[in-house]
Amino acid sequence: MPTILKLKMLSLLENKRGFQIRFINPDGNDTKKQVPSGVNPHQYAVEKNLLFEQGDYGGKSTSITLNQAVIKFYTQLDEMVYREKTNAKYGNTMRPHRRNLIKGILQNHILPALGNEPLTNIKPYQIKSLQTELSYKMTPQVVNAYLAVLGSVFTMCYEKGWMETNPVMLIKRLQVKEFKKLYTPVKHEVEEVISAAPDDWRRTMIMIAANTGLRTCEILALTWKAISGDVIKVEKSVVFGHVGKPKNKTSKRKVRIDGKLKLRLNTMRLASTGDFLFTNSNGNLYTGTDATRQVLDKAIKKAGVQSFGWHGLRRFYENELEDQGMRKDHIQKLMGHQIGSQVTDRHYRVVREEAVLTDDYVLSIGG
What we know:
- The protein has 2 domains: about 5-170, DNA polymerase, domain 1 (Orthogonal Bundle); about 185-350, Intergrase catalytic core (hpI Integrase, Chain A, Orthogonal Bundle).
- It is built from 14 helices and 9 strands.
- It has helices at about 40-55, 65-85, 95-115, 125-135, 140-160, 185-195, 200-210, 215-220, 260-270, 290-305, 310-325, 330-335, 345-350, 355; strands spanning about 5, 10-15, 20-25, 30-35, 225-230, 230-235, 235-240, 240-245, 255.
């Protein structure tokens, strides 16, 4: 059997059934173990090597540390990402950027405080101390999200019999401040921002956001194949440079555009040398942050209007459709929401002052 990877504590080999690792167990015996199907074999071997270095060969020891448990937790995340990439019919899935975010939270904020603690020694007061420490540096929403990640690790440990309880469940979540409504631009402000954009491709990016309600991640993932005539097919999204599926199943949709935007896109297509509509000077895809700083923020500053984000244009789009009398289920379909979703009402509708001062909003009741 050919050796694919050789590490300090084990080797990864390929056989007729797939892959296996080979190592010397604590009793000194040469041992082989098949890599589970559906798991990235290289990642599996690296994580097993780390566990073996810490003396964990998969026994039922109750002295396993949080560091060791997290390595096993990463394997679960990798399996979910694998199912996502292979469009698996069954089992939970996860996007790669979500896995990377969870790993970053654990490595940077959780493990430095609790990583070396045996699971059986971790008590609720330690979780409370960690919560307090994080609250000095982060908002309550972020602290709650970070502890939820730790709680997921402990849930796995509880299910495997490594812990009697999940101590995160015994800690009260921090109170979240009331949601602050973000500014939604009005039509003349959007037009001023589009005019203030320094070149055609930036104007076009802003126009797509205002005229279609696409999410930033959907705009940045647009390819020329996704545009046919006056129809844009939303099929992908890009997060942290990774192109993948849209946010959810209902995000896959078609949106029509007007003649002006169609003409702009046709002109851009003739000058384009790549597959994607929007790339930076190095030919790479933009991140959402870069698109905000280099495109939207600069145009807003030059136009001299109140600041808003890309999602402000999404709210603007919803408002315009509603003002035109479009049915709510149609709006939800165009925006990639599930039919009947309360998100549309909760986040998007903003009654604007100049709208309520028009005759359409004046009641005439009685004689």
